[in-house]
UniProtKB/TrEMBL annotation:
PROSITE patterns: PGM_PMM (PS00710). Its cofactor is Mg(2+). Signal peptide: none annotated. It comes from Mesonia phycicola. GO terms for molecular function: magnesium ion binding; phosphopentomutase activity. This is Phosphoglucomutase. InterPro entries: A-D-PHexomutase_a/b/a-I, A-D-PHexomutase_a/b/a-I/II/III, A-D-PHexomutase_a/b/a-II, A-D-PHexomutase_a/b/a-III, A-D-PHexomutase_C_sf, A-D-PHexomutase_CS, Alpha-D-phosphohexomutase_SF. Keywords: Coiled coil, Isomerase, Magnesium, Metal-binding, Phosphoprotein.
């Protein structure tokens, strides 16, 4: 506690503005628990950059923690590009203080002699990734906390390829930041170096999105396809309706109550398309309009949730693995139909996502590259293998990327792709749902489930650490009476193969991830979240699906199997 008090008292010095000093003094006098949580650690970069609760303190998002990041990043950029005019692009979402924090970040960059392109209003995260390359920038920043609660905000950093930071740059930048003192931050803007961007980049991004999802679906098929769309009070309202209209989808119904950007997210408990409750209003509108598909995006518009009609005419929510395999299969079929395969193509996913992606790759004769959680690793694959062609890829957490014109998950282009798939299927007397069942009949029915346990604060962090340590040091030999044949520990970089009784090296960066593979093809993974106070458990099982009519029965059997596997854990 002494160290925490010392850190807090420093925030009473004249290095910090009057408002910050006042709020820190209030914590010292009136809220010891909040004080402890605000100063017990420094916010760190996770899988999606820096994300945290807004407020005063080293463990909070505020002008000083972001200012220190930006000053350190400015110093690093100057070291890396000593002979270039350094340029950065900045975007932000609908969250409270996002616009103000984005301006502070712009001010610090400009004060360091760096040219800044900043959107004058909120924009989707994938557009920022696109803008970095389009404007020939060395770096990009998005102010967002994705689907976190309203009290959160965050800071994502992109490099010149349009992908998020990866090693070694992230560690080098963190070292640069940690070597700084708060009084070294340059807050005084050089207005001549700040340029506001809007329509030119918008239109270039829209055209690129349309070009990447141009599959010759007929005008009538698109007009006949009914779509309900909700932005969940986020940034996608600025682009997705426009993209759908330009593509020829005229039957689009927007959930008006959720169309207004609002950092309070007043109509939902969580603006997360993974949560069924978030799409409740959209599903109701879909039934009213007899829509074919519902699409909802998260606040910064990099992830999307989809619901479609099943064979009983009922709207059902799909998970991220399901939409990923169907989108990937569609793209691969298009390549195949055009005889475009040259033998150097690849698709991509993550180690905790469905193994069905590997089956698709084998079927089409392409490579499936796997990375750690986070699209920065998929972007790194594209950068590291320029001789190969990236077709598409995603992860179980409702993110997908089409081609490489954007180097991050992209709900704008993925929304358009989903609608194209649905419209083409409907025109062919099928449906999005039936196309998924056909995939399961061909490749096997893969069923997945994610369990997320929220563990907040210092005690929560310790609980998560203990759970991972116990699993690592005492790995189960079986789950549900089924033997573990392979145990991968990405922290140590070792894999124990119990069939061959050998230990192998994992060719991955070190990460706090554990994966168990069972002899029946099941997979169980555990990892702490990099952006939220959670520990996550991923279970994948699979079986044979002989007919579409047996889907629900087979699915139920696999769900029961998942529950049996999860009974091993004491949640």
């Amino acid at each position: 506690m002494e160290e925490i008090l010392s850190k807090a008292k420093y925030w009473l010095s004249d290095v910090f503005d009057e408002n910050t000093r006042k709020k820190t003094q209030d914590l010292l006098e009136n809220n010891k628990a909040e004080l402890e949580d605000s100063f017990y650690q420094d916010l760190a970069f996770g899988t999606g950059g820096m994300r945290g609760i807004m407020g005063v303190g080293t463990n909070r998002i505020n002008k000083y923690t972001l200012g220190k990041n930006t000053q350190g990043l400015s110093n690093y950029l100057k070291e890396q590009f000593p002979k270039k005019e350094i340029k950065v692009a900045i975007a932000y979402d609908c969250r409270h203080n996002s616009k103000e924090l984005a301006q502070i970040v712009a001010n610090v960059f400009s004060a360091n002699g760096i040219k800044v392109f900043i959107f004058s209003d909120l924009r989707p995260t994938p557009e920022l990734s696109f803008a970095v390359k389009y404007l020939d920038c060395q770096c990009g920043i998005v102010l967002t906390a994705s689907h976190n609660p309203p009290e959160y905000n965050g800071y994502k950093v992109y490099w010149e390829d349009g992908g998020q930071l990866v090693p070694p740059q992230d560690h080098e930048i963190i070292t640069e930041i940690n070597n700084l003192e708060y009084q070294e931050i340059k807050f005084e803007a050089n207005e001549e170096l700040i340029e506001y961007i809007d329509q030119e980049v918008d239109q270039a991004f829209v055209e690129a999105s349309l070009a990447n999802v141009d599959f010759g679906v007929s005008k009538k098929a698109k007009e006949d396809y009914k779509i309900v769309f909700t932005s969940l009070h986020g940034t996608s309202i600025t682009l997705i309706p426009q993209v759908l209209e330009k593509a020829g989808f005229s039957n689009v119904f927007i959930v008006k109550e959720q169309a207004e950007p609002n950092g309070d997210f007043p109509t939902v408990k969580s603006p997360n398309p993974e949560e069924p409750d978030a799409l409740k209003m959209a599903l109701e509108l879909a039934d009213e309009k007899q829509a074919d598909m519902v699409i909802g995006t998260d606040p910064d518009s990099d992830r999307l949730g989809i619901a479609v009609r099943d064979n009983d005419g009922k709207m059902v929510l799909l998970n991220g693995n399901q939409t990923m395999v169907l989108m990937t299969d569609f793209l691969l079929k298009e390549y195949q139909a055009k005889n475009s395969f040259k033998g150097n193509e690849f698709i991509a996913s993550t180690v905790v996502s469905t193994p069905m992606m590997n089956q698709l790759a084998k079927h089409y004769g392409v490579e499936c590259k796997l990375g750690l959680t986070g699209f920065k690793w998929i972007a790194k694959m594209i950068k590291d293998y320029p001789q190969q062609t990236f077709i598409g890829g995603g992860e179980e957490s409702f993110g997908y990327m089409v081609g490489d014109f954007v180097r991050d998950k992209d709900a704008v282009t993925s929304t358009l792709l989903a609608c194209m798939i649905g419209a083409a299927a409907k025109a062919d007397s099928s449906s999005f749902y039936n196309e998924l069942l056909e995939l399961y009949k061909t490749h096997g029915l893969y069923q997945e489930k994610l369990i997320s346990l929220v563990k907040k604060g210092i005690t929560g962090a310790e609980e998560i650490k203990t759970m991972m340590t116990d699993l690592r040091e005492n790995p189960p030999k079986e789950f549900n009476n089924t033997k573990v044949v392979l145990f991968e520990d990405y922290q140590t970089g070792k894999a124990q193969d119990f069939k061959e009784n050998i230990t192998k090296e994992l060719d991955f960066p070190k990460s706090n991830v554990l994966i168990f593979y069972l002899e029946d093809g099941s997979k169980i993974a555990a990892r702490p979240s990099g952006t939220e106070p959670k520990i996550k458990f991923y279970v994948s099982v699979n079986g044979k699906l002989d007919t579409a009519e047996n889907y629900k029965k087979t699915k139920e059997q696999l769900e029961n199997k998942i529950d049996s596997v999860l009974s091993h854990f004491d949640f």
